[in-house]
Amino acid sequence: MQYAEAPDDVLMAGVRRGDSRAIATLYDRYSNLVFSLGLRMLGNRESTEELVQEVFLRAWRQAGTYQPALGRLSNWLLGITRNLAVDELRRRGARPQRSEGDPEEQLAHIASATTDDPAEQVAIGSRREEIRRALDSLPPPQRQVIELAYYSGLTQAEIAAQLGDPLGTVKTRMRLASHKLRELLREMDQVSPSGVVEDK
């Protein structure tokens, strides 16, 4: 069977059967997304590359636990990524590279958050809505690059290629969007949470 155009549930059925083509397609489809979150959390390319391998090994071994009704495959994989990255940081005795108050970390967290706790589900849903409102208030070019980075898992170079814009332009839009998001989220919170990274 050809998996390149297959929906995620069909792809995961192949992964559960141990079909090497399905496993390879899963990696091709989502490795950039997993790498993007892992690098933001660990801050080290070599460690992130090892993390990506472990994420897909675990996804293969635990494929039977994925339930499409509970969320998208990308979120399931990001949840595994986040858990493994946190474990690695604890092992090092290190802290994540970005504060939970930083908009980039919040976007990564919201994208990967999964929980069975109803109270946490409400809190996550509320924060997701706040971030969506903040994103919607950005100028369209800035919103576009942020969404491609954090919801599609593209690197800045890949965004530039996809949009046909210079890499420098993409970097500038990302920087401006991140700064504006930080301001908007602070306003929504009324007061700056302790984890917010203050501008120098």
Description of the molecule:
This protein is mainly alpha-helical. The protein has two domains: 8-92, RNA polymerase sigma factor, region 2, helix turn helix motif (Rna Polymerase Sigma Factor, Chain: A, Orthogonal Bundle), CATH 1.10.1740; 103-189, Arc Repressor Mutant, subunit A (Orthogonal Bundle), CATH 1.10.10.10. Helix content is 70%, strand content 0%. The protein contains nine helices and no strands. The chain has helices at 8-16, 20-42, 45-61, 73-92, 103-112, 118-136, 140-150, 156-163, 167-189. 29% of the residues are buried. Mean pLDDT is 76; it is low at 97-102 and 190-200.
Descriptive keywords:
200 residues; mainly alpha; Rna Polymerase Sigma Factor, Chain: A; Arc Repressor Mutant, subunit A; 2 domains; 9 helices; 0% strand; disordered C terminus
| Biggest sheet features | none
Percent strand equals: under 5%
Element order: H for helix, E for strand: HHHHHHHHH
CATH superfamily of the largest domain: Winged helix-like DNA-binding domain superfamily/Winged helix DNA-binding domain
Shape: globular
CATH architecture of the largest domain: Orthogonal Bundle
Name the structural class: mainly alpha
Helical amount: over 70%
Mean pLDDT: 76
What is the count of DSSP helices, taking H or I runs of 4+ residues? 9
Cα radius of gyration in angstroms: 17 Å
CATH uppermost class of the largest domain:
Mainly Alpha
What is the total domain count? Answer: 2
Let me know the number of strands.
Answer: 0
What fold name goes in the CATH topology slot of the largest domain? Arc Repressor Mutant, subunit A
Model regions low in confidence, pLDDT < 50 over at least 5 residues:
97-102, 190-200
- N- to C-terminal distance: 54 Å
